[in-house]
Amino acid sequence: MMLIKFSLSFMVVFSAVISYLLAPDVVAYDWSRIMLLFLGGMLVTGSANAVNQVVEKDTDALMKRTAKRPVASGRMSTTEGWTFAILALIAGLAILADFSWLAAGLALLSWFMYAYMYTPLKKVSAISVLVGAVPGALPCLIGWAAGQDELTIGGWVLFGIQFFWQFPHFWAIAWIAHKDYSNAGFKLMPSVEGPSRYSAIQSVVYSLVLIPVGTLPYLTGMSGMASFWIVLAANLFMLTQCVRLYREMEVKAARRVMFSSYIYLPVVLLALLADKL
User: Fold this and answer.
1) Quick one: DSSP state of residue 276?
2) Can you tell me whether residue 63 is helix, strand or coil?
3) Closest CA to 112 of 87, 130, 138
4) Which of 8, 207, 244, 270 lies at a 20 to 30 A Cα distance from 89?
5) Rg (CA), the chain
6) Where does residue 254 rank: exposed (0-12), middle (13-18), buried (19+ CB within 10 A)?
7) What is the pTM of this model?
């Protein structure tokens, strides 16, 4: 459970499953297929998180929030971690291929970008957050491809929402854990000075971008007017929390942004699904 970072993986796969259900070709709930997609997604995502922990075991050991992870603490060997990662990846891709080869291909791309691009870049530059936002949003396209077997506009709209959502979400986490991250050599904040007004204004900018992006499900005919107002309210709420961070410049304000972002994604996705046209 710790190796796959279950709570993080669950959020990622949740967005893939909702995107699958939002695809136009999925007109009825087949719970066996839904659970199969969830399992395939959890295996691939868990594999990527396992690789991340094996590769970063030394830096994880330096940080209080990650020192108890199984590989970093020595409770699991790197060989065991790699074995799980490889087997989980193969099994997950096989399951996703049963939905569509496009979904499986996108899942493999997401796995590679997370494990071999985002992970090493974290010690190089804050550009890692931009790179990591791509595999972070790809589950929406994976789910859409699993239900539609092609990447039409709806899938890209969902990708856009999840892509821009990640910046205030992740920078709030990086703000809170800045000391830990800095001690481990990670460069994750948009400012070299770490938690600064420049970093806070970046969160405001990306939460502002989410407002017009959040109108696209309605404008493209994916969902109706009810979800339009719910998504707009969620976006304004996120913007308010980011503005408060800019004004207050305190960890407790960053924590409000973080928890708001955790609430934002399920509210928006479930609203779109409930109001699907």
Assistant:
1) B
2) coil
3) 138
4) 270
5) 18
6) buried
7) 0.93
